Amino acid sequence: MKHAVKKLGMMLLTMLIVSFLAFLAFQVIPGDPTNTILGTDATPEQVEALRAQLGLDRPFFVRYFDWLFRFVQGDFGTSYSYSMPVSDMLSGKLGVTLLLAVLSFTLTVLVSIPVGILSADCGGWLDKALTVTGQITMAVPPFFTGILLTYLFGLILHWFTPGEFVAPGVDFWGSVAYLIFPATAIALPRIAMTVKMLRSGILGELNKDYVRTAHSRGNDRKAILYRHVLRNAVVPSVAFLAMTIADIVAGSVVIEQVFAIPGMGRLLFSSISNRDYPVVQAVIVLMAFWVVLVNFVADMINQRLDPRLRLQ
Fold it and tell me: Residue 224 sits in a domain of what CATH number?
C-alpha cells in the first residue's frame, strides 16, 4: 500500500511537470496565434483586442494556473481555429485512437507471448527463422509497413478501401475491420521486440539452479517451463509491454496519417500547423497521462508477479 501511494504521488508530480512544460513550450516558441486567427492584415488594435479576449495579455503563471485548474475539471479550453471547445473536438477522436491502441496491443500480446515461448522452447532452425524474421520486422518502420499493407490489402486484394474509415459510433465492427491493418503495422515491430525479450528471459531462467533441481526430481520440461520459468521470465516483459502500450499511442500519430484515420494523431498534426495551442496542449497532456498511467498499472502488476519487489 505504501509503495502504491508513493508511485501515485510520483505520477501526479510527473503530470504536473508535463503540464507545465507543455504550457511553457507554446509561450516561448516564435509566432502568435492571433496572426493565425486574424491573418497578416490585422491592425495592431485588432491584435491587442484579440489577445485580451484570449487572455494572452495576462502574466504567464496566472494563465498557467487558470488553464491547469480548468483542465483538471475537464475544460481543455477553446480551439483557436474552430472556435469550439477542445473537449468536443477530442471526444470522438480519442475513442478512435484508443480503439487503435487496444487492437495493436491485443495483437502484440496474442502473438508475441506464444511465439516467444515457442522460440525459446524449440530452438534449432525454427528459433533461427523466428529470430531473423524478428530482426527484419524491427528494422522496418511502421509507416513503411503501413504503406505496404495499404498497397497489398487495400489496392490489390481490396480487403478494405483506403481513406474510407467508418466511425465506431456508426459501424463498430466495420471500424474494427478497417483498423486491423494499421494496428498490424503498429504491432509488428513491437511483437518482434517482445518475442526477443521473452525468449532471452526464458533462456536465462532455464540455466538457473532451481530448474536443474526440478529436473533432477523428475519434473517434466513442459511443466517446469509453464509453472515456474515462465512466471519469472515474464516479469521484465510486463514492464516492456507497459512501455509498448504507451508507445503505441505515440506511434499511432504517424500511422493515422498513412491510413487517413481521423484520430488524435491527425488532429495533432493539423493543430500544430495551425498553431492551435489549446488543442496541442490538451493532446500532449492526455498522451502523457496515458503513458504515466500505464506504467503505474504495470508497476502494480509487477509487484503482484514478483514477491521480491514487495519486500523492497
Answer: 1.10.3720.10
